[in-house]
Amino acid sequence: MNTYEDHLRSISARETVLNKKFGGRFNFALVYPNFYRVGMSNLGIHIIYQLLNAHQQISCERFFLNPSANKILSVETQSPLNKFQIIGFAVSFEPDYFNIVKILRLGKINPCASERTDFDPIIIAGGPCATFNPEPLAEIFDAFVIGEGEEILPPLIDEIISTENLARSKRLEKISRLPGVYVPTFPQKVSRQWVKNLDEHFAHSMILTDDAEFNMYLIETARGCGRHCRFCMAGYCFRKPRNRSLDVLKQEILYAKQFGKKIGLMGAAISDYPQIDELCKFILDEKLQMSVASFRADSVTPELVQSLAASRLKTLTIAPEVGSEKMRRVINKGITEENIFNAVELGLKAGIKNFRLYFMIGLPFEELEDVEEIANLSARIKKFCAGRLTLSVNPFVPKPFTPFQWSPFAEKKYLDTALKILRGGLKSMRGVEIISESFKAAEIQAILARGDRKISEIVLQSETAQDFRKNFKAARLNENFYLRQRNLEENLPWDFLNQGFSKKYLIDEFNRAKNFKTTLPCFDGCTRCGVCKTISQDL
After folding, report:
1. Given this model, what pLDDT does residue 523 score?
2. How many CB atoms lie within 10 A of CB 2?
3. DSSP state of 520
4. What pairing do the DSSP bridges indicate for beta strands 262-266 and 216-220?
């Protein structure tokens, strides 16, 4: 019978590591709090893995969740977690918070930061969740990376190494002085740090494996988004939008060609890349297949869709998000119904017959009539195309640092009614499937996303969502306090973070949504939100 160690050795043997490194006096455990197949499809893991191993004194190994094991060991050398001096978690999604607690316990490390000693590792967190609201995890981590790792990690690692002989509290106090580092025991205002020129930093797959969910060679084309969608945390916390140069992308594609894998283009909206047609043509001319993380219906091109079809894509994914013109103005998605049908038509002309549509329900200022329009739009699209139509319909979860951060999470009765309207409106149509996240799962995500230090105390005790519900109830906390409409003047748990734009800007955008007013995307010379004004001041 194969052991857990055998399983890890087998995984490692099937990997192709592009830049192997051995040695380094300090052992860094890079942890993705989910399964291997999920973590290895996250480009951020590849970027940080290479960044850390490029440091002369660091030897980085990876850890992933394994549900069948009663311990946790590294992929590279099957070493236990508690043998590493530094542990870094990449935290992308709120439901993974409970896996963090589970992994630390499996690694025989106290998950409570205040109870760890000078002999315990320094434990840090980075990723989107750390950047927009670290408070629900503040009882667990010693420090948080606020922003992009390429800018923050090198000086942070240097400081951790240079203070190795100091007491833990003194080390953390020194770390807290670094730009972009938040230490909960030494709270202060922290400004997000981010890469100004993407071409100065690589961002592609560093470890190739057939065992990842996305069996591709991943390449980042751009970072950030300037479309101002009012529900989207990534659009605000990764400003300003930045593109890699076409020459750099071509070089990365030529290097990737030797491995024969499909090229996975990563970015917030691949179709917004200024030279997307030339990039697609280059990939196909090199006899490679391609896939994209996402595209927008208003910027998708025939060349892009034809390239996806040539790469054997069977289902085209479009994210209208809403069904009515009113709600399109509310969320400021910036696409029209004509854009949506044009994208469908491009897919059909390229030979793609199946479509997946992403929608949200429970958005601010939404009424049931707007939900009916989702059903009506979907029905028209189904009549337009002959293949299978899948609707992914999920409850809206308000996120920090967006204009909708003050909005409530919709009540179960409303969401149930909305889903009933959708299913009823489409039940007579063959070839239509509706899938939706459970209310309970979305509700927990909503509590965690806008949680405070009290929530961190509950997360600290919880290895599963069921644990969290039980512990939340035992602590006599009020769900409605976390799910409710927030007051615009209210102090929010994440207000101590500076993302580069003002709270007033978010309030103005909230009021524009309330009045059904749209906002133009980012453009050169724009200083509306303040991020680009900050850049000019830095320069």
Report:
1. 78
2. 8
3. P
4. parallel
What pLDDT was estimated at residue 537?
Answer: 47
Q: What residue ranges of the chain have pLDDT lower than 70?
A: 1, 533-539
Q: What are 243's strand-pairing partners?
A: 222
Amino acid making up residue 43: L
Torsion sign, CA atoms 40, 45, 50, 54: negative
What pLDDT is recorded for position 159? 98
CA distance 316 to 303: 14
Q: Which residue has the tokens 């007051």?
A: 487
Determine the distance from the C-alpha atom of residue 22 to the mean position of all C-alpha atoms in its chain, rounded to a whole number. Answer: 30
- Judging by DSSP bridges, how do beta strands 242-243 and 222-223 pair with one another? antiparallel
Please answer whether residues 62 and 32 qualify as being in contact, where contact means their C-beta atoms are separated by less than 8 angstroms: yes
* Residue burial 299-317, b: 16+ Cβ < 10 Å; e: rest: bbeebbbbbbbebebeebb
pLDDT at 538: 46
In this predicted structure, what is the pLDDT of residue 525?
Answer: 79
- The pLDDT assigned to 2 comes to 81
pLDDT for position 293: 85
Could you tell me which residues come within 8 angstroms of residue 161 by beta carbon, excluding any fewer than 6 positions away?
Answer: 26, 57
DSSP string over 75-96: TTT--BGGG-SEEEEE---GGG
In tens, the pLDDT along 173-231 reads: 999 999 999 999 999 999 999 999 999 999 999 999 999 999 999 999 999 888 899 99
For 123-175, give the secondary structure using H, E and C.
EEEECHHHHHCCHHHCCCCCEEECECHHHHHHHHHHHHHHCCCCCHHHHHHHH
Sequence length of the chain is 539
* Radius of gyration for the alpha carbons in the chain, expressed in angstroms and rounded: 23
